[in-house]
Amino acid sequence: MSKKDDILKAAITLFADRGFQDASMTEVAKMSGVSGATVFYHFKSKEALFLIALETVKDGIIQEFDQYLSEHDFESGLELAEGIISFYLYLAGTMEEWFLLLHSHYPYKLALVNEECRSHLEKIYNSLVDIFERAVALGREDGSISAGDSRKTALVIFSMVDGVVRFKIYNLYDTGALFNELINSCRKILKYKM
Amino acid sequence: MSKKDDILKAAITLFADRGFQDASMTEVAKMSGVSGATVFYHFKSKEALFLIALETVKDGIIQEFDQYLSEHDFESGLELAEGIISFYLYLAGTMEEWFLLLHSHYPYKLALVNEECRSHLEKIYNSLVDIFERAVALGREDGSISAGDSRKTALVIFSMVDGVVRFKIYNLYDTGALFNELINSCRKILKYKM
DNA sequence: AAAAACTGACTGACCAATCAGTAGAGGTGG
DNA sequence: CCACCTCTACTGATTGGTCAGTCAGTTTTT
């Protein structure tokens, strides 16, 4: 692996662990075994490094979901939705860094003034909500789901799952203990009609 | 209002807006119209100021919910649950600062090494989940709710609502557009039995 | 030899925290 | 009434340290 990759990997870890402001470029350099100046040779500024870190996380998340969906078959839209939730929780466990970065405040503040940042965030959330929405739409066709508006239902389910992930990565509650309850709640939202 | 209160108020705004590390004591001083040294006269360190800001938010949230619950009557446990959700979203709109502070990474990192911080966070979340849990338990008694485990159901509902609040304060999606969907989803989770 | 990768030493800006000292309110003795 | 004292609130100036970013020059690769 090239030194540039080492730096990027260290940056993701540190930005996730400490947040943008509290992660110093000196630390990134130390963690990746290069001198401070080398970091600036490969990345023109701290903000630029953060944006590339965010882009890497974006690509990682999207690629992982693509792979998961291509490797599994689902009997119904409802089963697909449950699979996505399970995989989201699994990924948040194995790739905790990605979700810590995604739950930190900085990218959302930067997105207000930086179009590239906004674009990365939109891509991530749109991709994830799209996946849920496709499951809902599919389930409505095959009869396994009877919820109303696909997009809004997908958004609420996503915010529920992401809320549980947040509790997990901030050490508030254990996701494992809530997994069954989460899947059950999701089924109820999707199966029933008010 | 005393200068100490001015400082605390400015600190809450700045910590919420920029996070702990990016909010400087000089800025807090400037915003509250005192000299830099005065901030340290009233609060012994930046961390101590943050802890008091968090405590103030804790007291504010708990007091607001106490008042809301004492001023309203509810026909059933289900109606109470819906009222709590509505009020949570309302409060996140009017007191956005509180929820920004509560969604920032720093307090959860500090909680790992600082007991006082951990205690504040636990108090906030336990109070909120308790309120939901009481609604679920009440609804099971009066027949308006048929969900399983009260605590776990309360946790999932809370994480769903808090997830939507996060989308709102991070400018990802508009809470208003999701309100009806959220209430509907909550009803489904609470009313039906798998 | 030329280009790319890399580094040590440095700079200016900023920041948390300190400290010596000022201003004024309130109390006390003469 | 005043002279003196004390305590709280407050401040300007300073300090030691950290940080992002630069640059001139060295090493490695092609």
Protein described:
- The structure is a homodimer of 194-residue chains.
- The relative contact order of chain A is 0.12.
- The longest helix of chain A is centred in the middle third of the chain and has 28 residues, at 115-142.
- Chain A is an all-alpha fold and 194 residues long.
- The first copy, chain A, contains 10 helices and no strands.
- Chain A has helices at residues 3-18, 25-31, 36-42, 46-71, 77-94, 96-103, 106-111, 115-142, 150-169, 175-191.
- In chain A, helix 1 crosses helix 6 (96-103), helix 4 packs parallel to helix 8 (115-142) and helix 9 (150-169) runs antiparallel to helix 10.
- Chain A has 2 domains: 1-43, Arc Repressor Mutant, subunit A (Orthogonal Bundle); 50-191, Tetracycline Repressor, domain 2, CATH 1.10.357.10.
- The first copy, chain A, binds a DNA duplex (30 and 30 nucleotides) through residues 3-4, 24-26, 34-38, 40-42, 44-46.
Summarize the structure.
The structure is a homodimer of 194-residue chains. Chain A is mainly alpha-helical and 194 residues long. Chain A has helices at 3-18, 25-31, 36-42, 46-71, 77-94, 96-103, 106-111, 115-142, 150-169, 175-191.
